[in-house]
Amino acid sequence: MSGDTHLTHIDEKGDVRMVDVSQKPDTERVAIAEGFISMHPETLALIVEGKAAKGDVLACARVAGVMAAKQTSTLIPMCHPLNITKAKVECTPVLEGEREDGRVGIHITTTTGVTGKTGIEMEALTAAGVACLTVYDMCKAVDRGMEISEIRLLKKDGGKTGLWLRGESE
């Protein structure tokens, strides 16, 4: 946990509020997040071979993730609307034997960027979650047991607090 334990979205009376960032300087900010959706090997094969009934699952997940990043402030109540300058979603098939836990599926990595007064972490996390949900939606007819997990921030850079990396700054 970081040294600052003050919750910025709670005022002195305990009410939720959107943080006033009007006095903060614009800085370049980047965030990287990830998510994983596990599935049966047969479901992964359908995706990789392009045989899913609803079409190109990974292309659709990438587009959905970018769209989600752009809509984050409409989904998360105290999140500021941002003029996003970068949104990238990568979908990597994970085959049998590639993970220690033996699960197969799709690993999602998202990168978002902005030049602004507040961070871009929520956009990266939202993109990862929605990309995973899109894979689920497109494949649920053949595999309702898919499981979404490991949605987490990997990196954030910029602003007053600077660089944060998972595993190094915790």
UniProtKB/TrEMBL annotation:
A Pfam cross-reference name: MoaC
EC supergroup of this enzyme: lyase
Catalytic reaction(s) noted: (8S)-3',8-cyclo-7,8-dihydroguanosine 5'-triphosphate = cyclic pyranopterin phosphate + diphosphate
GO biological processes: Mo-molybdopterin cofactor biosynthetic process
UniProt keyword list: Lyase, Molybdenum cofactor biosynthesis
Chain positions recorded as substrate binding sites: 78-80, 122-123
Pathway: Cofactor biosynthesis; molybdopterin biosynthesis
Active site residues per record: 137
SUPFAM superfamilies the record matches: Molybdenum cofactor biosynthesis protein C, MoaC
InterPro entries named among the record's database cross-references: MoaC, MoaC_bact/euk, MoaC_sf, MoCo_biosynth_MoaA/MoaC, Mopterin_CF_biosynth-C_dom
E.C. number: 4.6.1.17
GO terms of molecular function: cyclic pyranopterin monophosphate synthase activity
Domain spans labelled Molybdopterin cofactor biosynthesis C (MoaC): 18-159
UniProt family annotation: Belongs to the MoaC family.
PANTHER family for the chain: MOLYBDOPTERIN COFACTOR SYNTHESIS PROTEIN A (PTHR22960)
Function comment: Catalyzes the conversion of (8S)-3',8-cyclo-7,8-dihydroguanosine 5'-triphosphate to cyclic pyranopterin monophosphate (cPMP).
Database matches in NCBIfam families: moaC, PRK09364.1
Subunit-structure text: Homohexamer; trimer of dimers.
Protein name: Cyclic pyranopterin monophosphate synthase
Organism, scientific name: Ellagibacter isourolithinifaciens
Gene transcribed to yield this protein: moaC
